[in-house]
């Protein structure tokens, strides 16, 4: 019974602090709007980069999966039976999604079209071109190491003369993506620190304006935790409102960029739609903003009340 009473008193104290903090920020609307706007912009900047990076990663991953191709050059002395057996072996390989075979005759025909005639080709006594197998790996096989292992496996086949795949562009793509991720993380950390300082400064001003009230509360025996509680909720309110503002700004930015992105995609005979933050990412953004507001208000109010 005593524990329930203590819990009820504790809940009432927090509810009182919540309402008091709401009253404090509502009495200075201009300052509140300015603080929330600055915090919202500071949050929206790295999260906008994050959203754009996620969209770009999805596009590059789709392009990577659909353009990754390994060229396998067969030995020139293979019989049709050996070639058919090899193609069957490749098509049943669980790491290979698609196999396209270009026979020496097809290759010679395409080469004839490229050079603009068949007179030079007709002088050849023997077709010098080997059979070529174009292999597309499965979607889950998208790292340099995994693709290198597949190429090595293909090279060891007795019917294969050469297997090649240009990994340089894939390595560059992964390095660029990693670099951009690190930049977004660094910017996010710096702006998170800025948000803590913004909230801290706002709480500092609030405690300075209420020095007499705080002194009276201390004289009547109020603890620092009791006095600090409304200021902590002010930081949480700032975080909640700025998180919502940041989410709205990100949505507005992505909506504004959708038209030029669609026009760019159309120039490549493609279509692309910028995806907004998911509900989970948006809620995480708001919770993170509230925690930053709480951290900033706790640090400064703890220092001010010591």
Key attributes of the depicted protein:
4 strands, 4-stranded antiparallel beta sheet, 306 residues, 10 helices, 8% strand, alpha+beta, 74% helix
Distance between the termini: 35 Å
The backbone outline, from C-alpha atoms, is elongated
Number of strands: 4
β-strand amount: 5-15%
Uncertain runs with pLDDT below 50, 5 residues or more? none
How would you classify the helix and strand content by structural class? alpha+beta
Total number of helical segments? 10
Mean pLDDT: 80
User: How are the strands of the largest sheet arranged?
Assistant: 2-3-1-4
Q: Whole-number radius of gyration?
A: 32 Å
Q: Give the topology string: H per helix, E per strand.
A: HHEHEHHEHEHHHH
Binned, the helix content reads over 70%
Major pleated sheet = 4 strands, antiparallel
Could you characterize the architecture of this molecule?
By secondary structure, this protein is an alpha+beta fold. 74% of the residues lie in helices and 8% in strands. It is built from ten helices and four strands, in the order ααβαβααβαβαααα. It has helices spanning 2-26, 29-67, 80-91, 104-115, 119-122, 144-155, 168-209, 211-219, 224-267, 279-305; strands at 70-74, 96-102, 132-137, 160-164. The chain has a four-stranded antiparallel beta sheet with strand order 2-3-1-4, sandwiched between helices. α7 crosses α10 (279-305). The longest helix is centred in the C-terminal third of the chain and has 44 residues, at 224-267.
């Amino acid at each position: 019974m005593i524990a329930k009473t203590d819990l009820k008193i504790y809940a009432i104290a927090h509810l009182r602090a919540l309402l008091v903090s709401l009253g404090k920020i509502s009495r200075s609307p201009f300052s509140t709007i300015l603080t929330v706007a600055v915090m919202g912009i500071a949050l929206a900047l790295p999260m906008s980069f994050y959203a754009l990076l996620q969209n770009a990663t999805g596009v590059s991953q789709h392009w990577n999966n659909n353009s990754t191709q390994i060229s396998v050059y067969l030995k020139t002395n293979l019989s049709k039976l050996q070639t058919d057996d090899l193609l069957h072996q490749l098509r049943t390989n669980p790491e290979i999604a698609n196999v396209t075979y270009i026979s020496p005759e097809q290759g010679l025909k395409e080469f004839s079209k490229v050079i603009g005639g068949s007179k030079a080709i007709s002088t050849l006594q023997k077709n010098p071109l080997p059979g070529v197998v174009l292999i597309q790996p499965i979607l889950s096989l998208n790292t340099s190491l995994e693709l290198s292992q597949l190429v090595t496996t293909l090279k060891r086949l007795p019917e294969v003369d050469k297997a090649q795949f240009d990994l340089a562009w894939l390595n560059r793509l992964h390095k660029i993506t990693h670099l951009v991720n690190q930049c977004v993380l660094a910017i996010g950390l710096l702006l998170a620190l800025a948000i803590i300082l913004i909230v801290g400064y706002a709480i500092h001003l609030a405690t300075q304006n209420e020095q007499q009230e705080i002194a009276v509360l201390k004289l009547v025996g109020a603890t620092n935790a009791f006095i600090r509680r409304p200021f902590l909720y002010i930081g949480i309110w700032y975080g909640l409102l700025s998180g919502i503002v940041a989410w709205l700004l990100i949505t507005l930015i992505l909506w504004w960029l959708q038209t030029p992105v669609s026009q760019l995609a159309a120039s490549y005979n493609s279509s692309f739609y910028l995806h907004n933050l998911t509900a989970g990412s948006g809620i995480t953004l708001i919770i993170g903003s509230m925690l930053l507001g709480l951290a900033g208000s706790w640090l400064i109010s703890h220092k001010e009340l010591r």
